[in-house]
Amino acid sequence: MHPTDIHQIVANDLLSDKFEDFMLRRVLSMDPDTRWCPAPDCGFAVIATGCAGCPKLKCERPGCGSYFCYHCKAEWHPNQTCDMARAQRSPMFSSHHSITFMTFRQMTMSNHAQDAKC
């Protein structure tokens, strides 16, 4: 179906604009160098070809201007690796998982020890 057919069928400017946005996002999502601005209420696409070596990206949407990382796609984190920035953004999340893993492992090991006694 052609986009003009969709516009005629829908006959609603708001829905037609939303359809065009979804189609554009679909096309851009297939480009491996497309990055979406992580700023709240932005969603502007930045096509960042050849930016892996210099990963600081700037959103060029008027009124935004946020900086973010090409690699992890989160807000820019100067002097930090992506993993360090991720851990700093959610310290409770990362420590919670390691505690849960250790507890699960300890439980599993104690169950195996009990099985060995039987």
UniProtKB/TrEMBL annotation:
One of its GO terms (biological process) is protein ubiquitination. Keywords: Metal-binding, Repeat, Transferase, Ubl conjugation pathway, Zinc, Zinc-finger. InterPro entries: E3_UB_ligase_RBR, IBR_dom, TRIAD_supradom. It catalyses: [E2 ubiquitin-conjugating enzyme]-S-ubiquitinyl-L-cysteine + [acceptor protein]-L-lysine = [E2 ubiquitin-conjugating enzyme]-L-cysteine + [acceptor protein]-N(6)-ubiquitinyl-L-lysine. It comes from the Eukaryota. GO terms for molecular function: ubiquitin protein ligase activity; zinc ion binding. PROSITE patterns: TRIAD. It is an enzyme of class 2 (transferase). Its EC number is 2.3.2.31. Residues 1-118 form the RING-type domain. This is RBR-type E3 ubiquitin transferase.
